Structure prediction request, 62 residues.
Amino acid sequence: MICPDCGLECRVDAAWLEVSGDNAPDTATLVQRVQRLVCRNPRCTRHGREVAQVKNTMYRGE
Ligand SMILES: [Zn+2]
Prediction:
């Protein structure tokens, strides 16, 4: 992911897991890893601020 303001590659500031559908029997369990990307350019107005969140599905139940 590239920062739209300065064009530098973003860095991962935080990552966590999100689980949904786990408490409803008729909903498939979905586990996603979420990474929060921030700009690492100290001269950019977005420095240290969230640019995007990237979600990757780790597990999808039936
Ligand atoms: Zn930037």
Observations:
- The mean pLDDT is 94.
